[in-house]
Amino acid sequence: MPDDKKDLYLYEALELRAEFNARIKSLKSLMPEQQSKSGVWSMRSDNPERLEPVDDFDSVNCRKDIK
Questions:
Q1: Where does the pLDDT of residue 16 fall: very low under 50, low under 70, confident under 90, or very high at 90 and above?
Q2: Distance of CA 8 to the CA centre of its chain
Q3: C-beta of residue 23 within 8 angstroms of C-beta of residue 30
């Protein structure tokens, strides 16, 4: 960190720049323009079978297991 004269050393500046770049990169990945529409969590699907419920799914038992 800065000393008494408020000087910032080179290695500290490099570490701060790396941290800022990492934060900027992670925030950019959250922007809607950067997200792909064909991801795992996407609601759009080319395969309609993927959106159908499973035949042997029992919601009552599932709710009991969650509680």
A1: very high
A2: 32
A3: no
